[in-house]
Design brief:
Elements lengths: L1 H15 L15 H16 L3 E8 L2 E6 L5 H4 L5 E5 L27 E5 L6 E6 L8 E7 L12 E8 L2
Antiparallel strand pairs: 1-2, 2-5, 3-6, 4-5, 6-7
Length: 166
C-alpha cells in the first residue's frame, strides 16, 4: 500500500512539472482574411534571407552571411544596411546612434561602404568601409529589405547582430 501511494504521488508530481522543452501554446481567434494574410506573411518571412553570421575579417571589413541566397542587387545595396553605435550619436562607421530608429535616410551609404558578393551562391557579402572599424567599440549591424533571388518586395528586417571592433 505504501509503495502504491509513493508511486501515485510520484506520478502526479511528474505530471505537474513543466518540462523545459515544452512551450506554452497561445492561440488567438482571427477572421479568415487576417488568418490568410498572417500565413502569407509567415511564409514570406521563411523565404527571406536572414543574417546567420557576422565576422570582422580585417580592420575595415565585415563578412555577412545569410542562411540562404540573397538577391544580388539587394545584398550589395548599402541602403539595406545600418550600423548602430553604442554612443548617443553615430560615431566611426555607424550611421545611427544607440536610440535612433532605422529609416531609409539614415542607412549606410555608398560613400561610406562598398558591398561585394563573396564567391559562391549569394549567401555571403563583404562590407568594406572607407574607414577602419574602431577597436573595442560595440556596434550593431541591422539589415532590412533583402529578398531572395527572384523574390518580390520585402519590407521587413533580415536580422541584426551586435559586434565589437577588433
Amino acid at each position: 500500500m505504501k509503495k502504491l501511494i509513493i508511486l501515485i504521488v510520484t506520478a502526479l508530481l511528474m505530471i505537474s512539472i513543466k518540462i523545459p522543452s515544452q512551450n506554452e501554446v497561445k492561440a488567438e481567434i482571427v477572421s479568415e482574411g487576417e488568418e490568410a494574410s498572417t500565413i502569407a506573411s509567415n511564409q514570406l518571412k521563411r523565404q527571406v534571407p536572414m543574417l546567420s553570421e557576422l565576422f570582422q575579417v580585417s580592420t575595415n571589413q565585415l563578412l555577412v552571411t545569410f542562411d540562404r541566397p540573397a538577391d544580388l542587387n539587394a545584398g550589395t545595396k548599402a541602403s539595406n544596411y545600418w550600423i548602430q553605435s553604442s554612443d548617443m550619436k553615430p560615431t566611426g562607421i555607424a550611421s545611427i546612434g544607440k536610440n535612433d530608429t532605422v529609416y531609409p535616410k539614415n542607412s549606410l551609404t555608398e560613400d561610406k561602404v562598398k558591398i561585394t558578393k563573396v564567391q559562391g551562391n549569394n549567401n555571403s557579402f563583404l562590407l568594406t568601409f572607407k574607414e577602419n572599424i574602431p577597436s573595442k567599440k560595440t556596434f550593431k549591424l541591422i539589415i532590412c529589405y533583402v529578398t531572395a533571388p527572384g523574390g518580390g518586395q520585402y519590407n521587413g528586417d533580415n536580422g541584426m547582430q551586435v559586434f565589437v571592433g577588433k
